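To the wet lab folks,

You asked to see what we're planning to order before we commit. Fair enough. Below is the target structure as C-alpha cells, and below that is the sequence we designed to fit it. If anything looks off to you, flag it before the synthesis order goes out.
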C-alpha cells in the first residue's frame, strides 16, 4: 500500500509541475508575441543591430531593445506606424519616475517623445534604466545624461 501512495504522489507532483511550466511558457510567449512587430520593424530600420533582450512598457506602446554592443534601441507605436530609434549618449536624460514602475526619459532633440514610461514590474523599469545608463557609460558618455537626478 505505501508504494501506491508514493506513485500517486509522484504522478501528482509531475502533473503540478507540468501545469506550472505550461503557464510560465504561455506567459513568456505572450510577452514575446507583443514585441514581434517591434522586432521586425527595428530589424528593418537597423539591419546590422543584433537584439539581445526586449522589454515593453505596460501599455505595450513602447518597446525597449537591448542590443549586443551595449546600445539601446526604442520602438514607439504611433497609431498604425512605428518609430524606431537608437538611443545615443547625450540625446536622452534618464530620471526616476513617480514610482518604482516608472522611468522618465527626456529626449533632447525631440521633446514630444519625452515622458514617463510605465512598466509592468519594478524589475523591468530598473532593467531598462540600467541598459540606458550602462550603454551611455560604456560609450564614454560621462555627461549629465548618465547621472540620475532626484525627482
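Sequence we intend to order:
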Amino acid at each position: 500500500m505505501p508504494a501506491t501512495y508514493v506513485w500517486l504522489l509522484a504522478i501528482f507532483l509531475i502533473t503540478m509541475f507540468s501545469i506550472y511550466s505550461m503557464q510560465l511558457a504561455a506567459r513568456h510567449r505572450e510577452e514575446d508575441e507583443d514585441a514581434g512587430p517591434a522586432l521586425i520593424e527595428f530589424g528593418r530600420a537597423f539591419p546590422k543591430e543584433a537584439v539581445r533582450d526586449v522589454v515593453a512598457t505596460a501599455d505595450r506602446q513602447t518597446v525597449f531593445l537591448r542590443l549586443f554592443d551595449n546600445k539601446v534601441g526604442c520602438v514607439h507605436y504611433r497609431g498604425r506606424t512605428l518609430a524606431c530609434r537608437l538611443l545615443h549618449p547625450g540625446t536622452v536624460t534618464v530620471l526616476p519616475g513617480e514610482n518604482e514602475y516608472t522611468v522618465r526619459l527626456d529626449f533632447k532633440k525631440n521633446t514630444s517623445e519625452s515622458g514617463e514610461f510605465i512598466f509592468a514590474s519594478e524589475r523591468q523599469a530598473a532593467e531598462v534604466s540600467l541598459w540606458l545608463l550602462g550603454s551611455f557609460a560604456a560609450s564614454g558618455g560621462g555627461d549629465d545624461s548618465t547621472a540620475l537626478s532626484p525627482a
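Structural context that might help your review: The mean pLDDT is 81. The helical segments are 2-45, 122-138.

Thanks,
Computational group
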